[in-house]
Specification:
The chain is built from 20 helices and nine strands. By secondary structure, the protein is α/β, with parallel strands linked by helices. Bound molecules: nicotinamide 8-bromo-adenine dinucleotide phosphate (NBP).
């Protein structure tokens, strides 16, 4: 008796692939699975003999493709880059016109644009879908950001909506409590069609850039509590736990509270104190920052978060420098609780700026790539499943629902008033950090971004005059229409023309 054909197939059975396959099977879809190293596939299938939809392990690409219903839908979840291209190349000879390949890896969006174009020429349809939420998200509900062929997305939509994280649309809160074989029923799925070709992977990249900012900001809040206020990890954990009940309520604040409360099983010390202070990265924050520079979009806070990881990585240099470069003696004598509240507000305001920068990037990219990104929907699908899920995303959704063409998130009335309400505390924290020599690069950067953005006349007038002086780069005049350029016939250096 021949086995039934599968609804969908998946190539790549590492952490993400295994968990996503189980999530799909839990929703009653039959799924064929293939992995380059066959034994990984065999062990995986053997470990999960009965799932609601059923797993069909295949040892060859030919058998894998033959096991799928037409048009075939194949998810690739392998190491992004050359691995993805290798899998596509191995699949293509066995596919037929109209079949759909879905890349769920963290692909560079320009690679997705190239792949979509190449596959279209071969009659195949391609979806580049951001998948966020790590292992847990893949297993019980990720945030999914699909871009590419719209009609192809409509064919995978039932599966994508079934496996995505779910939120309560009114409160914006993720629906939790899924267990193996018992997925969440109801709620609004955290997936929506993002746009053509590389749009989904672009949005996923920006999501990761914001995530870099979010994580670094939380670390700076911790650094201030620890180094300025002399608080223990346990005391900091209690503060983060409280913060998680207010405007900062988010996955990252929640896990930070858990991490800071965790003891090291070997020494019994606070776990965070035995983790070496060098942070790794996989490159999506760098991609976001490089893209910001390429497009000329100010996203300094995201970039600062990437640089903070680079600075953390030169541990030996820092240890040496700590003996040679002196800073101020840390002294805090004020009201401790008031400073904790101020740190809360500094984190909140900086976070608003990081999101504003991320949405600015998407806004510019959509013009360059001729996308029409659904910003309100994007904020909606970030509310559950993904690493940056947070209560305040509901406010971003509302901001874009009120005004799809919002120029900058900072200009939405809600965020304008929040920044107004909290900025005194934000400034107090940045000043205290500077006075006491506690490095808080993203708090500083975000505040400078905010101040520069709200400043009518920046010192760039002097800068442009300098450029005209030494390089005849021309300047625009304040008393002339924009776009009209002038050059001054500058006198010799040291001899400014004092009278005209
Ligand atoms: P990895 O990124 O560690 O990739 C391992 C998988 O890629 C294995 O199945 C491996 O097969 C396969 N593979 C490689 Br490596 N080169 C291959 C090739 N040339 N041909 C065929 N298969 C190849 O897995 P992951 O951490 O599960 O991530 C999968 C994707 O999801 C990545 O793009 C990642 O960036 C993205 N992602 C990961 C997370 C996360 O939290 N881990 C979150 C969101 C997105 P093998 O078993 O034969 O070596």
């Amino acid at each position: 008796m021949s086995l039934p054909q599968s609804d969908i197939g998946l190539v790549g059975l590492a952490v993400m692939g295994q968990n996503l396959a189980l999530n799909i099977a839990d929703h009653g879809f039959r799924i064929s699975v293939y992995n380059r190293t066959t034994v990984t596939m065999e062990k995986f299938v053997a470990a999960h003999p009965s799932t609601p939809g059923g797993l069909d392990g295949q040892a060859t690409i030919e058998g894998f493709v033959a096991s799928l219903k037409r048009p075939r839908k194949i998810i690739i979840l392998v190491k992004a880059g050359a691995g993805t291209d290798a899998v596509i190349d191995s699949l293509v000879p066995h596919l037929e016109e109209g079949d759909i390949i879905i890349d769920g890896g963290n692909a560079l969006w320009t690679d997705t644009i190239r792949r979509e174009k190449d596959l279209k020429a071969k009659g195949l349809r391609f979806i580049g879908s951001g998948v966020s939420g790590g292992e847990e998200g893949a297993r019980f509900g990720p945030s999914l950001m699909p871009g590419g062929d719209k009609a192809a997305f409509e064919e995978i939509r039932p599966i994508w909506e079934a496996i995505a994280a779910k939120v309560d649309d009114k409160t914006g809160k993720p629906l939790e409590g899924a267990t193996p074989g018992h997925p969440i029923v109801g709620g609004v799925p955290c997936t929506t069609y993002i746009g053509p070709n590389g749009a989904g992977h672009y949005v996923k990249m920006v999501h990761n850039g914001i995530e870099y900012g979010d994580m670094q900001m939380i670390c700076e809040a911790f650094a201030l509590m620890k180094n300025l206020l002399g608080m223990s990890a346990e005391e900091c954990a209690a503060v983060f736990k409280t913060w998680n009940t207010g405007v900062l309520d988010s996955f990252l604040i929640e896990i930070t509270a858990d991490i800071l409360a965790q003891k090291d099983p070997v020494t019994g010390k606070a776990f965070v104190d035995i983790v070496l202070d060098t942070a790794g990265q996989k490159g999506t924050g760098k991609w976001t920052s490089t893209n910001a520079l390429d497009m000329g979009v100010p996203a300094p806070t995201v970039a600062e978060a990437v640089f903070a990881r680079y600075l953390s990585a030169v541990k030996e240099e820092r240890v040496n420098a700590s003996k040679l470069l002196k800073g101020p003696a840390v002294s805090f004598t004020g009201d401790k609780q008031a400073m904790i509240d101020a740190i809360h507000d500094a984190l909140y305001c900086s976070k608003i700026c990081a999101y504003a920068q991320g949405f600015q990037l998407m806004r510019t990219a959509q013009v360059d790539y001729k996308w029409d990104l659904p910003f309100g929907e994007i904020a909606k699908i970030f509310r559950g499943g993904c690493i940056i899920r947070a209560r305040f995303l509901q406010k971003i959704t509302e901001a874009y629902q009120h005004n799809h063409d919002l120029v900058n998130l900072l200009l939405d009335p809600f965020f304008t008033s929040e920044l107004d309400r909290c900025q005194t505390n934000w400034r107090k924290v940045v000043a205290a950090a500077a006075t006491n020599g506690v490095a808080t690069p993203t708090f500083f950067s975000a505040l400078s971004y905010f101040d520069a953005y709200r400043t009518e006349t920046l010192p760039a007038n002097l800068l442009q005059a300098q450029r005209d002086f030494f390089g005849a780069h021309t300047y625009e005049r304040t008393d002339s229409p924009r776009g009209k350029f002038f050059h001054l016939d500058w006198p010799e250096p040291g001899r400014p023309q004092l009278e005209v």
